[in-house]
Design goal:
Elements lengths: L12 E4 L7 H8 L4 E4 L2 H6 L1 H11 L5 E3 L8 H13 L4 E6 L1 H15 L24 E5 L11 E6 L4 E6 L7 E4 L9 H20 L5 H23 L4 H17 L6 H13 L3 H16 L4 H10 L9 H18 L16 H10 L12 H13 L2
Parallel strand pairs: 1-8, 2-3, 2-4, 4-5, 5-8
Antiparallel strand pairs: 6-7
Bound molecules: fe (ii) ion (FE2).
């Protein structure tokens, strides 16, 4: 039933394909960026990916500054330090280069360049995101992983060390002006990180599809994203040099992030708690929680999970939605096993006595509020228990 006015927006210009990173100078010119700050992490500085991007700029005569100290699960201090580099170098735009962490930091540096901090003032949970004023300095996002899809997202996830939780800063103004998706940049991603980030992309597509909101465009994108992960993730994990698999995974991640403008679900609340409390990599955390959450949602989302089953190549002809949903969950569980993800939270090194704290933290997180089946704090704790023992 269509009974309300909806907003649909897909404004980021995307350049996709092997070698697309070499188009960076023309994107800079189009956005009027004369001195960008490259925001990246220490790993990419070492591997030479950052140097390659700097070289592209140098050959075009574009001066730049580099901030390469973004940590995984970035905190407010990372943002402050990157902002300091932006201001000290007189930059006029930001290039986010790397996984979700550098991209998220790049986006909020742009926010703080023209909006007075501290960043937590703009926390979505307190409605602070509505205080963000534009125009913001332009951002170009260049992902090197295939997970968060932050390159087309309007949000950044930052950890507040003082409050011991992750918070979201979201505003349509934060969508990068350009995204450059070059699968050649993902070729060096190690198998474990390929698996973790790929499961993050799968979780985005599945959770976005199951959010009960009228958005047929996002639903169609999520369906295709699921199909790409089902077809290409294992290939990318087992053969890191498979450019075609890298390309489809990069596309699947980007599509997941477009789709989750609908919102996410309980798996992300559990994953955010695991990252805040245990420092767990975000995609791994999703991978460990996705199947228990799908089982929890099975009746509420049976029709959508039947779509997931078809994305995994299962012929659902003659099945009820519940039968197809059950097959979808089995297929997701099998993929998670095949790409080498630990079976349980216990196997991943989580201490059992942390589960009550994790349940409380997950309940404080906003993502479960759009889960297709409402969650109490006790429900979230039970989901952690199931993920702990694979019960
Ligand atoms: Fe995610």
């Amino acid at each position: 039933m269509i009974d309300k006015i909806c907003q649909f927006s897909f404004p980021t210009q995307i350049s996709f394909g092997p070698g697309a990173a070499r188009m960076l100078p023309e994107h800079l010119a189009a956005l009027g960026m004369n001195k960008p700050l490259i925001v990246t992490d220490p790993g990419l500085k070492k591997t030479g990916v950052c140097t390659a991007v700097e070289t592209v700029l140098k050959r075009s005569g574009v001066p730049c500054a580099v901030f390469c100290e973004v940590e995984a699960n970035p905190c407010e201090k990372d943002v402050e330090n990157a902002l300091g580099a932006y201001l000290a170098n007189g930059c006029d735009g930001v290039i986010g280069l790397g996984g979700g962490s550098p991209l998220d930091v790049a986006k909020v540096v742009s926010v703080l360049a023209v909006n007075q901090g501290p960043l937590i003032r703009f926390d979505v949970l307190s409605g602070g995101n509505k205080q963000i004023q534009g125009p913001l300095p332009p951002v170009i996002a260049i992902p090197t992983t295939s997970g968060t899809g932050s390159e087309v997202g309007r949000c950044s996830v930052i950890t507040s060390e003082s409050e011991g939780r992750k918070f979201l800063v979201c505003n349509p103004l934060m969508m990068p002006g350009r995204a450059i998706l070059d699968p050649e940049l993902a070729l060096g991603l190690p198998p474990a990180l390929t698996a973790y980030t790929g499961l993050d992309a799968l979780t985005h597509n599945i959770e976005a599809l199951t959010v009960e909101d009228f958005h047929p465009m996002c639903d169609a994108i999520a369906e295709k994203g699921i199909e790409f992960v089902a077809s290409y993730l294992e290939r990318a994990v087992k053969n890191p040099g498979d450019l075609e698999a890298r390309g489809y995974m990069m596309m699947a991640a980007m599509m997941g992030a477009v789709a989750f403008q609908k919102d996410l679900g309980a798996a992300h609340s559990l994953a955010h708690a695991l990252s805040s409390v245990c420092g767990m990599q975000h995609g791994l955390a999703n991978a460990l929680c996705l199947v228990p959450v799908m089982r929890f949602n099975m009746e509420a989302s049976a029709r959508k999970y039947a779509v997931v089953a078809r994305g995994f190549g299962i012929n659902t002809f003659g099945m009820t939605d519940l039968e197809a949903a059950s097959q979808a969950i089995a297929a997701v569980e099998d993929l998670i096993r095949r790409v080498g993800i630990p079976a349980t939270l216990a196997d991943a090194g989580v201490e059992e006595d942390l589960l009550p704290l994790l349940g409380r933290k997950a309940f404080e997180d906003g993502c479960h509020q759009t889960n297709p089946r409402p969650c109490t704090q006790e429900d979230l704790l039970q989901l952690f228990r199931q993920a702990y023992t694979k019960g």
